[in-house]
Design a protein that fits this description.
The chain has 614 residues and is an alpha+beta fold. The chain has helices spanning 35-38, 62-77, 104-123, 125-144, 175-198, 201-218, 224-229, 240-255, 258-264, 268-275, 279-290, 315-329, 338-353, 359-375, 377-407, 422-438, 447-459, 482-488, 492-499, 551-554, 570-578, 589-592, and strands at residues 41-44, 82-90, 93-100, 467-469, 507-509, 511-514, 517-524, 540-543, 559-562, 582-584, 598-602, 607-610. The strands form two sheets. It has an eight-stranded mixed sheet. A four-stranded antiparallel sheet has the order 2-3-1-4. Helix 8 (240-255) crosses helix 12 (315-329). The longest helix is centred in the middle third of the chain and has 31 residues, at 377-407. The chain is globular, with a radius of gyration of 26 Å.
Length: 614
C-alpha cells in the first residue's frame, strides 16, 4: 500500500503554495497529521470533479454536497451500515472516503428503522416523486426571483424609516440590508437545493445494493451485468431531452426541412428566421418550443460553473439534431424503444425467478426488484431537476452578483467573483454596504483575485493520484456505503486492484456496465463535448467519465470505456438504456490506451483486451 502517497506529504505544484486560502478551512486536508485523516483511504472523486475547483464551484460540489446534506440524509433514511461519504480537498481536487458503521448493535437498530422508513417512501413513491419535481421547479423560481438591489444615495422616504409605521405598515429594510438579506436567501436556497438532491438518491442506491446482495446470495455466480440489466428500461428524465432531439430530427426529415437545419444549426437566429417562412418550418418551431422544458440539460454534469445549459446556447442541441439527421440519412433507426428494453429486463428477471427454490424466496426477489426499479428514476432524474436545472440557476444568479459588484468598482472583471467562496462573499457584501453608507472605499483588495488566478492555473498542472493513504490507513473489511458501491463502483476488492502496481498490460478490468462484445479503434478524449467533432462514428470511446447529459456522444460510438464509475453510475445506466457495450471503473484506461489502438470490449464481463500492443 506504500505505492500511494500520504495526503500530508503531498506538496503543491510550483506557484500554488497558498492553495488552501481558496477553500473553507474545514474542507482541506490539515497541514500537519490529523488522527482522522491519517486513518483513512482517500479516493480521488474523478467522477464528479475531475478538474480542480474554483471557489465558485463549491456551489455544485463537496462543500455542501458531501457535508451537512449527504450525511444528514444518510441519517434521515437510517442507512444501516453507512453514514455517507466524507471528503477533503487536496491541491484543489476532491477526495472522498466511505464512513462505514461496523458496530453490530448499531447496525441492528438502524436496520429496523431503515425498513420502516424506506417501505413508507417506496409505497408512496409516485406521489413523492411528483411532489419532489414540483418542489425543484419552485426552488428554481425562488432563486430566479432574487434581486440584487441598487444602493442609492438616500433611502426611499416612503418605504423606509420609523414614520412608515404611521401608515399601518412596518418599515422596509434599507437597500443595503436588503442586499445582505438577498444573499442570505441565496445561501439558504443553496442548502435547500442540496438537501432535495440527496433526499432519495441515497435510497435509490440502497435499494439497488440490497437487491444486488440478495441476488449474489440467491444465485451464486450471477454476473453483475445481469443484476444491473434487470433494472434497465426505467424512466430517466435526464435522457428525455436527448429523446426529444431524436424526435425533432426525425420530424425535420419527414417535413423536408432537414437541409435548412443542417445549413443553419450554428446560427439559431438565422435558422428560426428561415424556418418561419414555410408551414413546415413553423410546425417544427412549434414542436421545438413544446419541448424546451427538457432543454435545461448542460454540457457536463452541471457541477462546474462553466457547464453550459442548452437553453443558454441553442447551437448545442441543434448540433446534436444535425448529427441525428445525418444518421437518419445513413439509414439508421435513431429512436430508442424503452418499452422493449423494459420487457427484456423483465424476461431476464423471470428466468432468474424460476431458479429460486420456493415461493417465499420468489416473493422476496420480486419485492426487492420492484423497490429497486421503482427508485431507479431518481438516479438520473435527480440530476436533471437538481443538478442541471437548479445548480445552473444558482451559478447564473451568482454571476449576476459578480456583474453587480463589478458595476460598483469592487472587481476588475465580472467573473472575479468566481475566485471567492461563499463565506468571503458575505464579508465582501458587508464591506460594500458599510463603505456605501460611510462614503468610504471598500477594504477588499483586487490583488487577491489576481493572486488566486495564478494559483488556480498552477493547480491545473497537477496530476492527482487516484488513491491517498493516511499513515495509519487500513482498508475496511467491507465497503457497503451505497454511493461507493453503486456510483463509484468502489469495493474493497476494486481498491486492492488499484493499489497493486501495474504490470505489462494486455487486458484491463472494470465493471460490466452494458453487455455486448465489439472490436474497434480507440478514441481517447478528456472532454467528450469539447472534443465531440474529433470522435468518429464507430470508434470505441475511452474517457474519464461520461454523464447522461452527454447522451448524443454515446450514440456516436460503438462502445464505451471509462476510468470511473460502478454498475449504477451515469455512463453505465445510459449505456444499458441505449444498448451500447460498456465497461466502467477501469481506473487506468485513459493512461494506458492510446487513440488509434485496436481493442476488444466485452461489456458483459467488464474486460477490455488490447489487440494492438505496439
Amino acid at each position: 500500500m506504500a505505492a500511494y502517497p500520504d495526503p500530508h506529504d503531498v506538496r503543491p505544484p510550483p506557484g500554488a503554495e497558498e492553495w488552501r486560502e481558496l477553500y473553507p478551512y474545514y474542507w482541506v486536508f490539515s497541514e500537519d497529521h490529523d488522527e482522522f485523516e491519517d486513518s483513512v483511504v482517500w479516493v480521488f472523486d474523478n467522477l464528479h470533479h475531475p478538474l480542480p475547483l474554483l471557489p465558485v464551484d463549491l456551489i455544485g460540489s463537496a462543500w455542501y454536497g458531501y457535508g451537512a446534506t449527504v450525511l444528514s440524509c444518510s441519517n434521515e433514511l437510517a442507512i444501516p451500515t453507512a453514514r455517507g461519504p466524507q471528503g477533503r480537498i487536496l491541491n484543489g481536487y476532491v477526495y472522498i472516503n466511505s464512513r462505514e458503521i461496523t458496530d453490530p448493535e448499531t447496525i441492528q437498530k438502524r436496520v429496523a428503522e431503515f425498513q420502516k422508513r424506506s417501505k413508507h417512501i417506496i409505497d408512496n413513491w409516485p406521489e413523492i416523486w411528483r411532489r419532489w419535481i414540483t418542489e425543484c421547479k419552485d426552488l428554481a423560481m425562488r432563486i430566479e426571483e432574487i434581486k440584487w438591489p441598487e444602493l442609492k444615495e438616500l433611502e426611499d422616504f416612503e418605504r423606509v424609516g420609523p414614520h412608515v409605521r404611521l401608515t399601518g405598515k412596518n418599515s422596509e429594510l434599507s437597500d443595503g440590508l436588503k442586499l445582505i438579506m438577498e444573499w442570505h436567501k441565496f445561501v439558504q436556497l443553496l442548502y435547500e437545493v442540496w438537501h432535495v438532491h440527496f433526499e432519495h438518491i441515497m435510497l435509490a442506491f440502497a435499494t439497488y445494493a440490497i437487491f444486488m446482495d440478495f441476488c449474489k446470495k440467491a444465485f451464486p455466480g450471477i454476473e453483475d451485468k445481469d443484476i444491473a440489466a434487470m433494472l434497465a428500461g426505467t424512466e430517466q428524465d435526464l435522457l428525455e431531452g436527448d429523446r426529444r432531439l431524436r424526435i425533432l430530427a426525425k420530424m425535420a426529415v419527414e417535413l423536408g426541412i432537414h437541409g435548412i437545419v443542417k445549413r443553419f444549426y450554428d446560427d439559431p437566429q438565422a435558422l428560426f428566421s428561415e424556418l418561419q417562412k414555410t408551414p413546415e418550418g413553423r410546425r417544427f418551431i412549434e414542436e421545438w418550443n413544446n419541448n424546451r422544458e427538457w432543454f435545461h440539460v448542460t454540457t457536463g454534469n452541471a457541477l462546474y460553473h462553466f457547464h453550459i445549459q442548452w437553453l443558454d446556447d441553442l447551437r448545442i442541441p441543434l448540433k446534436y439534431i444535425t448529427g441525428y439527421i445525418e444518421r437518419i440519412e445513413r439509414g439508421e433507426d435513431i429512436i430508442i424503444d424503452r418499452l422493449s428494453v423494459a420487457k427484456e429486463a423483465m424476461k431476464l428477471a423471470e428466468e432468474y425467478s424460476k431458479l429460486l427454490p420456493n415461493e417465499s424466496d420468489r416473493a422476496a426477489f420480486w419485492e426487492l426488484l420492484h423497490s429497486a426499479r421503482a427508485m431507479a428514476p431518481a438516479l438520473e432524474g435527480h440530476a436533471y431537476y437538481n443538478d442541471h436545472w437548479l445548480f445552473s440557476t444558482l451559478y447564473k444568479k451568482y454571476d449576476e452578483l459578480g456583474h453587480y459588484l463589478y458595476s460598483k468598482g469592487v472587481f476588475s472583471n465580472p467573473t472575479d467573483i468566481r475566485y471567492l467562496h461563499l463565506f468571503e462573499v458575505e464579508a465582501l457584501l458587508n464591506d460594500l454596504v458599510c463603505a456605501h453608507y460611510s462614503d468610504s472605499p471598500v477594504k477588499f483588495k483586487k490583488e487577491i483575485i489576481e493572486k488566486r488566478k495564478k494559483i488556480y492555473e498552477a493547480l491545473k498542472q497537477w496530476k492527482p493520484p487516484l488513491i491517498l493513504l493516511g499513515k495509519k490507513a487500513k482498508l475496511p473489511e467491507r465497503i457497503t456505503e451505497p454511493f461507493f458501491v453503486g456510483l463509484w463502483g468502489l469495493t474493497r476488492e476494486k481498491i486492492e486492484e488499484f493499489l497493486k502496481p501495474p504490470e505489462k498490460l494486455v487486458e484491463l478490468k472494470g465493471w460490466p456496465a452494458s453487455p455486448g462484445i465489439v472490436e474497434g479503434v480507440v478514441r481517447v478524449v478528456e472532454d467528450p463535448i469539447a472534443q465531440y467533432d474529433e470522435i468518429q462514428p464507430g470508434e470505441i470511446l475511452v474517457t474519464g467519465f461520461l454523464h447522461a447529459s452527454q447522451a448524443p456522444v454515446f450514440t456516436k460510438v460503438k462502445a464505451l470505456v471509462t476510468d470511473g464509475g460502478g454498475v449504477m453510475s451515469h455512463p453505465a445506466i445510459v449505456a444499458r438504456e441505449l444498448k451500447i457495450p460498456a465497461v466502467v471503473g477501469v481506473g487506468i484506461a485513459t493512461s494506458v490506451l492510446k487513440t488509434g489502438q485496436r481493442v476488444r470490449v466485452d461489456g458483459g464481463k467488464g474486460i477490455v483486451t488490447i489487440l494492438d500492443t505496439t
